[in-house]
Model the fold of this input.
Amino acid sequence: MKLFAVFGNPIKHSKSPIIHKLFAKQTGISQNYIKINVPINFFSKSIINFFKNGGLGANITIPFKREAYKICDTLTNRAKYSGVVNTIKITSCKKILGDNTDGIGLLKDLNNLNFIIPKSNILLLGAGGAAQGIIYSLIQFGCNITIINRTYQHAKNIAEYFKNIKKINYLRIENLLHHSFNQIHYDLIINATSSSMNGNIPNIPLSILKPDIFCYDLFYDKENTPFLKWCVFHGVKNISDGIGMLIEQAAYAFYLWHGIMPNTKKIIRKYKKNIFNISNISD
Ligand SMILES: NC(=O)c1ccc[n+]([C@@H]2O[C@H](COP(=O)([O-])OP(=O)(O)OC[C@H]3O[C@@H](n4cnc5c(N)ncnc54)[C@H](OP(=O)(O)O)[C@@H]3O)[C@@H](O)[C@H]2O)c1
Done:
């Protein structure tokens, strides 16, 4: 059976195997998709071993997306301009092809939810691999982005990285309170930090939240993430976690590997709310 995997650390929480099983069932493709927990300094070694042992493609998650970019022989445009890779595939010439499906997956979900229009003013929280991976799609769509991050230098590095494509604002968190930045109306806040994983909330001023704002957390859990709970508590009506993005980005990865696009609408409709209750899918 064709072998695929998701590589990360930690990886226990990942729902990718379930989603790929749903895609395989829907499209009639037979594949084995497993989780691989990689010790922090062993990413490239693990990937090489995986491909030597018959693996055909992989998803890469926290914290290896920048490292994955470096080991690729060729890149799709999405990956090349993002500088991070979340999907790889072995080509027929045994080369490693890197793609980034996070950005396009997020954009698709935000469009499905009606959370975004071209020219949306987005406040992006976080400057890790996921934040870097989604920016290219958002700026291609026409959005304006301001980044803030716990470590200011990381936000600055990302803005520098994209400076030849589009100007991205980056701020110190304390400057968001500054009068002129406080006056900016953000249409959408995207939490691309991993703070929710540890039950924390990114440090942003309450005054940024307006009742008509959209708030999206890339993280997902059985119940609302700490960030989304905080938004709801302060009157935000339109919120979403990252399950839809997870399904959409997985579909683009599936397409890269098999050349067939799963019907994500059906899967989101049926499983978005109860993905945490599925432990196995009968074949
Ligand atoms: N739904 C999906 O399909 C999808 C796809 C990709 C990622 N994700 C989720 O996105 C999140 C980020 O992933 P990643 O790959 O970017 O991780 P990463 O590369 O490790 O980056 C983590 C980011 O979170 C920030 N951070 C961590 N703890 C924080 C805290 N307590 N308060 C404020 N900021 C904090 C870090 O700030 P510093 O720079 O200061 O360290 C950094 O900006 C994860 O929760 C991941 O599960 C979801």
